[in-house]
Amino acid sequence: MKRVILGLLGLALLACEHMGVDPNAVVYHSAFGFTAEIPAAWLAVDAGEVAQRASQSTPGALENIDPELLADFEAALRGGEVEIFFRPAEVAGGFVDNVSLRATPGGFPPADRDVLASCDVLTQTLSAAYGRPVALSVCELRRVAQRRSLYVEATGAVDGIHSLQYLIERPSGALIVVTGTALTESLPTLRGEIDAMVGSLELE
Hints:
The protein is an alpha+beta fold. It contains five helices and ten strands; from the N terminus they run E-E-E-H-H-E-E-H-H-E-E-E-E-H-E. It has one domain (26-203): Mog1/PsbP, alpha/beta/alpha sandwich (Protein Transport Mog1p, Chain A), CATH 3.40.1000.10. A hairpin with a 3-residue loop joins strand 1 (26-30) and strand 2. Helix 1 packs antiparallel against helix 2. It is globular.
């Protein structure tokens, strides 16, 4: 399914307008070995809750989400390899802005120029995978928790939907992958929220 892009390496859709830190943000302890402040407007969701809501009409935070998107959430969560947050939908059947967190083996080349060289390759890979031009409007190195991070913004994989991604280097050699997917009109808000979230990230 292409309704949600969950940042898998090789097809990952890898600043900007800062909205400030949410004063009501809560500290989230990720199973992937870090903490971060999550905006109060975002809800964490697990596979069991998604499956339950998808099979009944009980009102709740998930009731307005497009069923196809719910199925994407459930499939990604079932293996315990990703953590997902979303902004509750206000319109039935609507797409919801979402953020996924995951960890993956790997690391960056020692030289920054070699990391940035992957931007051109990524554009070609994504365009081939989706069968349509995918453009990277941003592909740059940043610092997160005093570690190197590759930040990317991508458009074109799905009409009207944008993806943002941080690939954050861990001392162990693994990467933390933070991916946000949003509608065009809510992109500035999502960008600010993810920047604030990543800015609060602390490795454990």
